[in-house]
Please model this.
Amino acid sequence: MFQIWLVQTSNTIIKWTIIALLIISAIYLIIMSVLKRDMKYPSAHPWLFTLETLLVSFTMGLIVVLMSYGRGQLSIKTLLEFGLMTLKFGVFHILLQFSGFYSYALEGK
Model:
């Protein structure tokens, strides 16, 4: 009985587990960004940080457009998805910087 229920609801369980992990991770990054406020690199190199953020966000958003184009599914919805992916990865990149992740991962500090 339990095995049948688990097989039937496994997609739902996995989907909501991933969503919960993403929300928890985002909250954790926001808290760490507020506490750490690692502004060393953005203050020292504002143009490079801006360019880096734009490059990361637009590259990730462009993947959606290329996938839609390759599958012949380009539409207005694709532009909305491009905007949302660009915004999501841009904010994620900024939060990683401000939380001190990049300083730790790239500089070992």
Summary: The chain has a mean pLDDT of 88.
